[in-house]
User: Which sequence fits this backbone?
């Protein structure tokens, strides 16, 4: 029984190491050990095993680690029905071509939103959205959509976290959430990035559960409030069609 516990703990620690790379492309031994709170000798042993199996690779010139090809090999076997980033990409490209702006897809993970897919605008001046970026949930159009259409229990949990309580005025924020639920979309103007504007709508699956947020973003000189209001029904229509693709 004790051996089994040690084995499970080793698996958990190895997974914690891999999760460190959700925020960074490459990391040194000391950085990884600091992030997961383990001694460097323990982390080095686990990294050696992961490297041997191809899940991480080490740059011998910098002694930094990054994800290995085995991760990408596994990702190629994701079922499209389970991978909205792949499944919804053609529809996102179609929306980008129709509106001419960058289109992004977000999921909620804990107190953050994760950009799992993005189709960049073809215009010379554009907003470039990086896939894999993790962003706070208390600011931005997509964040507000994901919170607005969450359950009351989830909203209360988010609003009571320490990083929110000192930043967000609860009463005004809750009013925003009610307005978003009523109109069906959220907008933002330079809330997170200077010069950037965005509009976002929820994507519901066939069971009526919000699974993602669909967003269109670009420079504020092209995306005025009137323009975003004009885009809203187009995004709602696109999100409805995307939702029918998700089980």
Assistant:
């Amino acid at each position: 029984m004790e051996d089994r516990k040690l084995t499970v703990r080793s698996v958990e620690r190895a997974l914690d190491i891999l999760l460190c790379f959700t925020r960074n492309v490459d990391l040194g031994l000391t950085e990884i050990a600091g992030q997961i709170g383990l001694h460097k000798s323990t982390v080095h042993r686990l990294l050696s095993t992961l490297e041997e199996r191809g899940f991480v690779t080490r740059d011998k010139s910098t002694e930094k680690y990054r994800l290995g090809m085995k991760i990408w090999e596994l990702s190629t076997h994701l079922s499209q029905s389970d991978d909205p980033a792949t499944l919804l990409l053609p529809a996102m490209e179609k929306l980008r071509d129709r509106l001419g702006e960058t289109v992004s897809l977000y999921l909620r993970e804990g107190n953050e939103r994760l950009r799992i897919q993005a189709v960049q605008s073809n215009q010379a001046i554009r907003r470039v959205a990086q896939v894999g970026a993790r962003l706070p949930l208390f600011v931005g159009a997509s964040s507000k959509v994901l919170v607005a259409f969450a359950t009351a229990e989830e909203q209360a949990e988010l609003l009571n976290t320490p990083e929110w309580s000192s930043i967000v005025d609860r009463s005004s924020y809750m009013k925003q959430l009610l307005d978003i639920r009523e109109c069906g979309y959220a907008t933002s103007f330079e809330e997170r990035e200077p010069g950037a504007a965005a509009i976002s709508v929820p994507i519901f699956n066939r069971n009526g559960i919000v699974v993602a947020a669909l967003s269109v973003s670009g420079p504020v000189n092209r995306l005025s409030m009137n323009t975003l209001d004009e885009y809203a029904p187009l995004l709602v229509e696109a999100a409805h069609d995307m939702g029918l693709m998700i089980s």
About this structure: Strands lie at 26-28, 56-59, 64-67, 102-109, 112-119, 134-136, 186-189, 196-204, 210-219.
